[in-house]
Write a structure and sequence with these properties.
- The complex is a heterodimer of chains A (about 325) and B (about 280).
- With about 325 residues, chain A is α/β, with parallel strands linked by helices.
- Chain A contains twelve helices and eleven strands.
- Chain A has two domains: about 180 residues, 3-Layer(aba) Sandwich (Rossmann fold); about 130 residues, Rossmann fold, CATH 3.40.50.
- A five-stranded parallel beta sheet of chain B has the order 1-2-3-5-4, with helices on both faces.
- Chain B has a single domain, classed as Thiamin diphosphate (ThDP)-binding fold, Pyr/PP domains (Rossmann fold, 3-Layer(aba) Sandwich), CATH 3.40.50.
- Chain B is an alpha/beta fold and about 280 residues long.
- Classes of the chains: A alpha/beta (about 325), B alpha/beta (about 280).
- The interface between A and B is medium-sized, with 27 and 33 residues.
Chain lengths: ~325, ~280
């Protein structure tokens, strides 16, 4: 912890771009403090294309067709939904090496209202066949998301939050420092916040909600600490997490239940034929004309410690 | 085309255009489907572009040459027949037209990897098609890449005028002008007929000029005029702006009963219509 998560990402990008002349950044008039050094020191490979997301994706496609490694950046709803056809047809259709970096996961742009909420983007981006999705929750998972996307040769979508966050992943756990720049090392894509092999209840969360869950663990009753809690930040090609032994899986995600982590877990359980019930604690869907800070909006959507406690107790009583 | 005098060149364009129209007609009749209207409107332009040898698709020692990004992919028969005639693609690939798993109603670069071709797809065409409004943006991206790499490769977008109604086209026109992409050429096949309606786009020149482009209008069926327009971009371009050539054409050109009839955007002629079309097209 110490840096804004966006700056962590763009610092890492800048370090790579200094060495790798193929890296190009395009923004749709979106800014981040961490982008300053890129703009100042590598101006010929930085394009502010203006508020024109559809064209941004098409220009990125053209650059990628000539071997450039393109990072496009804007606010989540506009860089995913506004230009979905361009992403689906040109990036996915031609399997192009473009990294879509969206800022403003979940309700992080609460005050700007529903137009800015990132609560159905996982749903739609998941539907694109060759699109990998990373939803990091802290500095180290952000750095790893960057390097996974940088090494990838197919389209990738990275969701960035705003602000500073407590460390969930420890640097040593993820990979050794020098390994980060070497191809094909194993990257950790999920982490048990607490692991109890005898537990038959699992709470799984991603991105910001992992911090909601972490707060809950801090103050939850003792007997609950013996259940398992997991954060996962690679969402498309889902990591090999063993879900088999759980009777109940509780999914905490700011994305709407339809198409988000809840759906991902349900699909996993259904395909493998596990005898597991899956419970959503997720955004209810887009509710228009509601403004407020993230805490207020999470409460409105029932993504709270209280709700987590309620659902866990319900599961425990059933068992 | 050095060494060939103007008359012979124009004669070649004329002959090839009719020859390609006939080939497209036969293929549509055989497959029982296809987009003849837009194919016939663009064929004279493509004849001049390809038989006039304006493009350097390969450059010695380089991975890439000039690029062609296609917007109106439903005119794929015009492109494919010319490419086949020039030896860019194989007979085997061309013959898959209309078959399940073969070439469909839109141009798809994946076909180039399925069937081994004499030339690779990035050197003939860059994008997959079928979804409209993307070609100018993609060609702009390639033009920027060419500029960054310091090469002289040209970037071409070939679009229809119905497609010019897409919003993303206007985002791209604005961007390309602001970036001074003078290595970018956009060719518009203005046949003024969409799938169901006639378009009102008389002021297209004015609009695009106001965005900061060099704009030339030409008759898209008079080969000498088309050549004159291409010469301006390929041989005499001193402008800092991107260039657009608006070619006035007739949808279904060459077959009397197909001309300016929206019915022939997509469809297959009956046996009688097929015979009449052949009579119209045979020189």
């Amino acid at each position: 912890m110490g840096k804004d998560i966006r700056d962590v990402f763009f610092d890492e990008l800048y370090k790579s771009a200094v060495i790798d002349k193929k890296i190009i950044v395009i923004t749709a008039d979106a800014d981040a403090f961490g982008l300053q050094q890129f703009k100042e020191n590598i101006p010929d490979r930085f394009i502010n294309i203006g508020v024109a997301e559809q064209n941004m994706i098409n220009v990125a496609a053209g650059l990628a067709l000539r071997g450039k490694k393109v990072f496009v950046y804007s606010i989540i709803p506009f860089i995913t939904m506004r230009c979905f056809e361009q992403i689906k047809f040109n990036l996915s259709g031609m399997n192009l090496d473009v990294v879509i970096v969206g800022v403003g996961t979940g309700f992080s742009f609460g005050f700007d209202g529903p137009s800015h909420h990132g609560i159905i983007d996982i749903s739609i981006m998941r539907s694109i066949p060759n699109m990998e999705i990373y939803n990091p929750c802290d500095e180290n998972s952000t750095i790893n998301s960057f390097h996974s996307a940088y090494r990838s040769i197919t389209p990738t979508y990275i969701r960035l939050d705003k602000g500073q966050f407590d460390d969930i992943y420890k640097f040593e756990e993820l990979s050794k420092a020098e390994d980060r720049y070497i191809y094909n090392h194993d990257i950790v894509e999920y982490k048990y916040l607490t692991e109890n092999r005898n537990s038959n209840i699992l709470v799984i969360s991603t991105g910001y909600t992992t911090h909601v869950v972490k707060e809950y663990i801090k103050q939850c009753p003792k007997e609950i600490k013996n259940i398992s809690f997991i954060d996962v930040y690679k969402l498309k090609e889902f990591p090999d997490i063993n879900l088999k032994n759980y009777k109940h899986i509780i999914v905490v995600d700011e994305n709407s239940w339809s198409g988000g982590l809840f759906t991902i877990i349900c699909e996993n359980v259904a395909i493998n034929g596990y005898n597991t019930r899956v419970h959503p604690i997720t955004a209810l869907g887009i509710e228009y004309l509601i403004y407020g800070d993230r805490k207020y909006l999470l409460e409105k959507n029932n993504i709270t410690s209280k709700k987590i406690q309620e659902v866990i107790m319900g599961c425990k009583n059933e068992i | 085309m050095d060494g060939i005098d103007t008359n012979k060149r124009i004669e070649l364009y004329k002959r090839k255009s009719q020859e390609m129209r006939l080939k497209c007609l036969h293929m549509v009749k055989k497959a029982k489907k296809g987009h003849l209207g837009g194919t016939f409107s663009i064929i004279d332009i493509l004849s001049v572009l390809y038989y006039g040898q304006y493009l350097q698709l390969y450059r010695k020692g380089k991975e890439y040459g000039d690029c062609v990004v296609i917007g109106k992919g439903h005119a794929n028969l015009a492109f494919l027949n010319i490419w086949h005639d020039l030896g860019y693609i194989s007979e085997e690939m061309l013959n898959t037209y209309g078959q399940n798993g073969g070439i469909g109603g839109q141009l798809d670069t994946k076909m180039f990897t399925v069937y081994k071709q004499p030339m690779h797809s990035p050197n003939i065409v860059d994008n997959i098609t079928g979804s409209l409004g993307h070609a100018i943006g993609i060609a702009s991206g390639i033009a920027i890449s060419n500029r960054l790499d310091g090469n002289n490769n040209k970037s071409l977008a070939i679009v229809g005028d119905g497609e010019m109604e897409e919003g993303s086209i206007w985002e791209a026109l604005d961007f390309a002008a602001k970036q001074n992409l003078n290595n970018l050429l956009c060719v518009v096949d203005r046949n003024r007929l969409g799938v169901t309606h006639f378009l009102e786009n008389d002021n297209l020149e004015e609009k695009v000029k106001s965005f900061g482009w060099e704009v030339y209008t030409t008759n898209g069926h008079i080969h000498k005029d088309i050549e004159y327009a291409f010469d301006k971009f390929f041989l005499k371009n001193k402008s800092k702006k991107p260039t657009m050539i608006i070619a006035n054409t007739i949808k279904g050109k060459g077959v009397s009963f197909m001309e300016n009839d929206a019915k022939w955007h997509h469809g297959c002629p009956t046996d009688d219509e097929y015979q009449r079309a052949i009579l119209d097209l045979e020189i």
